[in-house]
Write a structure and sequence with these properties.
mainly alpha
Length: 247
């Protein structure tokens, strides 16, 4: 895998951004432990898809094309007969709109990729690979192959775990509130650790986003309104704090 053209130096020391096989392999190794947290999430999606009447082929097709656990779970929760295609599509779009600022944050790498390197990386980007890659960028990493390597391992693990959930779900009926259903939440909570920069100004936006999402959920507002409200409120406050600090 040849080194990708960097265009301009990419960060500290003027070292250019690269895209190498070594970077992809290192990202894949780094992401392997994340499969432990991904497994329960995928199992839940597989089990829930059975309850919605999806065959194994349909479940795997959705997982391979969408590759977004939160969006898939939300769509499955809204699934009825006939399927509310418009509502499910809108809900998934709202949940996945967070990918836009993720791409902007990864611009130091993505801006220097072209062709399959760029589109392959964007097509497999998820919260886990984003969090790990942001930590890598902040530590001075310059190999953008790292991002694709983490994403590919997570993609393969996601397909396997969803398939396992679908195959095992017919034999094992989990009761509501089973600890397995907390696996996805725990995995997402763990992602906050590498994203935390230790800056006190980040604490208030994070707290506002969490508090508003929980409060609106308790008010009984339907999804994705709690998630959207918390995300937008936290992002707006963070932007205001950054602008004020810049002045």
């Amino acid at each position: 895998m040849a080194e990708a053209p960097s265009g301009a130096p990419g960060g500290a020391g003027g070292s250019p951004v690269r895209f190498t096989r070594a970077g992809v392999a290192r990202g894949a190794r780094a992401a392997t432990p994340m499969l432990i947290g991904l497994l329960p999430f995928g199992l839940v999606v597989g089990v829930v898809s059975i309850g919605r009447g999806l065959s194994l082929a349909e479940c795997l097709t959705m997982s391979a094309l969408v590759f977004a656990g939160a969006a898939q779970l939300l769509a499955l929760e809204l699934w009825t007969d006939p399927a509310p295609v418009l509502a499910a599509t809108l809900a998934a779009a709202v949940v996945n709109i967070r990918m836009a600022p993720m791409g902007a944050a990864l611009a130091p790498w993505l801006d220097r990729l072209r062709g399959w390197r760029l589109w392959g990386t964007l097509g497999t980007l998820v919260d886990h690979s984003f969090a790990m890659s942001m930590a890598e960028i902040r530590s001075g990493g310059r190999d953008a192959g790292y991002l694709l390597g983490t994403a590919l391992v997570l993609y393969a693990g996601w397909i396997v775990s969803v398939a396992a959930g679908h195959l095992l779900g017919g034999a094992v009926r989990l009761p509501p509130g089973h600890p397995l259903f907390f696996g996805g939440v725990a995995a997402f909570a763990a992602l906050l650790v590498p994203l935390w920069r230790g800056a006190r100004q980040d604490l208030l936006p994070w707290t506002l986003a969490a508090a508003l999402a929980v409060a609106t959920q308790h008010l009984g507002l339907p999804q994705p309104l709690p998630l959207l409200g918390g995300a937008l409120a936290g992002a707006a406050l963070a932007a205001w704090v950054d602008i004020r600090a810049a002045r």
